[in-house]
């Protein structure tokens, strides 16, 4: 009986091992539930945080910076200043000073306002342009920049900008705490470029008269006669620019053409990069997906244009072209004649040339540089939007060289002080 009773108790009471297994399963089940809840909650929290962050990020006001200038005879130094200014914000607004203001403060500009507007609008780091900007930042104009254009900071280079009365042109912006400074690109300025041409005029032959046609001949056809002491029969191209691979990378888009892209090729000297160049490049870019620009070497340009050409050296010209928003890539030191191998190597779909150019009778030449693309049926002549060439710019300076000499002497004194004891560095 006792044994039977004991058997009955064992049927009623759970076995210790069973209790242990059930307890373990229960703990695991609760643990998995809690882990799932934690992971789900964490995912929901991260998702909500991400949405909130992105929402706040979208709402964040872009930093708008302003930079002004004359941008006369625009060069790679101007472009580098705009590149640096753009890096200090999200959007760059550029003010282009009026012709009247330039005349009052510096002397006559080489390029009129409408041409300077074309040049500035074409720089790939510029988002918006204000025409007829004042030379000095007045209280009224500064308020307009802050209120109407939503400008956060006013930018200028580290070189002094002094008004005729001796005051700082950016004093008000500095006082307002809305001023930022960038490093100036040493080794080039509009004054320097005009000076290169004026220096050439002083190298003319002793027997030459001082009339405009005589000066013009030196730039159009070179001058192989004897020069005054200090002159050079190979031409004068004084440049303080030391090219670096870093600067070229900064100006480059860094992207090649996508597969099956239609690549358009245009070549030239692109000396004293001007509005005529910009407009033909803009037009060429509309004909394809990728614009490749060939820039001829200094030796080729001298041989074809004259001993005093080019005014800007190969790397200076390359940077100016690279800064143009319509240009995707450049060939630095492109050959004069376009070969079949070159067309194949760069997968060129179309070769174009403008109607307004320094050399517009190339098809009459025995060594037509475009003979191969013409034979392949991929050559096209484009109607140039503007009747401007490098010679046009040179003529403007030559015809009014006395006024520009006075302007340069005045500006040159301050620039000389700036450059003293300075060595060119690639900068930011």
From TrEMBL:
Residues 410-428 have a biased composition (Basic and acidic residues). GO terms for biological process: phosphatidylethanolamine biosynthetic process. SUPFAM superfamilies: Nucleotidylyl transferase. It is an enzyme of class 2 (transferase). Residues 210-234, 408-428 are annotated as: Disordered. One of its GO terms (cellular component) is cytoplasm. One of its GO terms (molecular function) is ethanolamine-phosphate cytidylyltransferase activity. Residues 212-226 have a biased composition (Polar residues). It comes from the Eukaryota. Its EC number is 2.7.7.14. InterPro entries: CCT, Cyt_trans-like, Ect1/PCYT2, Rossmann-like_a/b/a_fold. It catalyses: phosphoethanolamine + CTP + H(+) = CDP-ethanolamine + diphosphate. Coiled coil: none annotated. Pfam families: CTP_transf_like (PF01467). Keywords: Lipid biosynthesis, Lipid metabolism, Nucleotidyltransferase, Phospholipid biosynthesis, Phospholipid metabolism, Transferase. Residues 66-195, 265-395 form the Cytidyltransferase-like domain. Pathway: Lipid metabolism; Phospholipid metabolism; phosphatidylethanolamine biosynthesis; phosphatidylethanolamine from ethanolamine: step 2/3. Belongs to the cytidylyltransferase family. PANTHER family: ETHANOLAMINE-PHOSPHATE CYTIDYLYLTRANSFERASE. This is Ethanolamine-phosphate cytidylyltransferase.
């Amino acid at each position: 009986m006792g044994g039977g009773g004991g058997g009955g108790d064992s049927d009623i009471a759970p076995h210790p091992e069973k209790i242990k297994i059930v307890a373990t399963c229960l703990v695991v089940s609760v643990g998995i539930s809690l882990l799932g809840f934690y992971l789900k909650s964490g995912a929901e929290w991260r998702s909500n945080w991400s949405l909130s962050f992105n929402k706040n990020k979208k709402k964040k006001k872009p930093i708008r910076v302003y930079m002004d200038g004359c941008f006369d005879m625009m060069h790679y130094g101007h472009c580098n200043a705009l590149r640096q200014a753009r890096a200090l914000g999200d959007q760059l607004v550029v003010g282009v000073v009026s012709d009247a203001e330039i005349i009052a403060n510096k002397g006559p500009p080489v390029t009129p306002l409408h041409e300077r507007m074309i040049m500035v609008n074409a720089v790939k780091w510029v988002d918006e342009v204000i025409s007829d900007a004042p030379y000095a930042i007045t209280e009224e104009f500064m308020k307009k920049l802050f209120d109407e254009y939503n400008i956060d900071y006013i930018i200028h280079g580290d070189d002094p900008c002094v008004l005729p009365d001796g005051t700082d042109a950016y004093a008000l912006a500095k006082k307002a705490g809305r001023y930022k400074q960038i490093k100036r690109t040493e080794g080039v300025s509009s004054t320097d470029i005009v000076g290169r041409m004026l220096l050439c005029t002083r190298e003319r032959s002793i027997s030459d008269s001082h009339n405009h046609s005589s000066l013009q001949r030196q730039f159009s056809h070179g001058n192989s006669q004897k020069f005054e002491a200090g002159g050079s029969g190979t031409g004068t191209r004084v440049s303080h620019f030391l090219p670096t691979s870093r600067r070229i990378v900064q100006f480059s888009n860094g992207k090649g053409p996508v597969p099956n892209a239609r690549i358009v090729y245009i070549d030239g000297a692109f000396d004293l990069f001007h509005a005529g160049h910009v407009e033909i490049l803009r037009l060429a870019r509309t004909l394809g997906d990728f614009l490749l620009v060939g820039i001829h070497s200094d030796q080729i340009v001298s041989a074809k244009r004259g001993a005093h050409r080019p005014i800007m050296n190969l790397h200076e010209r390359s940077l100016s072209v690279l800064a143009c928003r319509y240009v995707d890539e450049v060939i630095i030191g492109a050959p004069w004649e376009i070969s079949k191998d070159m067309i194949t190597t760069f997968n060129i779909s179309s070769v174009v040339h403008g109607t307004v150019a320094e050399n517009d009778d190339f098809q009459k030449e025995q060594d037509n540089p475009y003979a191969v693309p013409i034979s392949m049926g991929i050559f096209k002549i484009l109607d140039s939007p503007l009747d401007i060439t490098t010679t046009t710019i040179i003529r403007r300076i030559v015809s009014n060289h006395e006024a520009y000499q006075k302007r340069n002497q005045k500006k040159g004194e301050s620039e000389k002080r700036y450059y003293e004891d300075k060595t060119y560095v690639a900068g930011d």
